[in-house]
Write a structure and sequence with these properties.
By secondary structure, this protein is mostly beta strands. 0% of the residues lie in helices and 63% in strands. The strands form two sheets. Strands 2, 4, 5, 6, 9, 10 and 11 form a seven-stranded mixed β-sheet that branches. The chain has a four-stranded antiparallel β-sheet with strand order 1-3-8-7, with no helix packed on it.
Length: 120
């Protein structure tokens, strides 16, 4: 079983910065991708940023140039540095990890979510 523990988030004024982290633990053979998604009230969950085992990254257009995703492979941890935050970035942010467990079966695991609130 794979567990994701998120930290970070909170309340920040527009223009400020926040950093999220997500540590993945459990029986893991390999991680294929690690990413961050968010869900604002009344909206569907959307991809914010993702990084793959090949070190490629992709971002939602709305956060390009402001957010940076990074990964510590040794610690199975993924980070999201969020700069120049806007009120529209307010949402619950979820960590997601896809890979193969120790039993070589694929997994698609989610964190519990952390709230980011940006005040205007």
């Amino acid at each position: 079983q794979v567990h994701l523990v998120e930290s970070g988030g909170g309340l920040v004024q527009a223009g400020g910065s926040l950093s999220l982290s997500c540590e993945v633990s459990g029986s893991i053979y390999s991680i294929v991708a690690m990413g961050w998604y968010r869900q604002a009230p009344g909206k569907q969950r959307e991809l914010v940023a993702i990084t793959t085992s090949g070190h490629s990254t992709d971002y939602a257009d709305s956060v390009k140039g402001r957010f940076t995703i990074s990964r510590d492979n040794g610690a199975n941890t993924v980070y999201l540095q969020m700069n120049r935050l806007k009120p529209e970035d307010t949402a619950v942010y979820y960590c997601n990890t896809k890979g193969y467990g120790g039993d070589r079966k694929p997994f698609d695991a989610w964190g519990q979510g952390t709230l980011v609130t940006v005040s205007s």
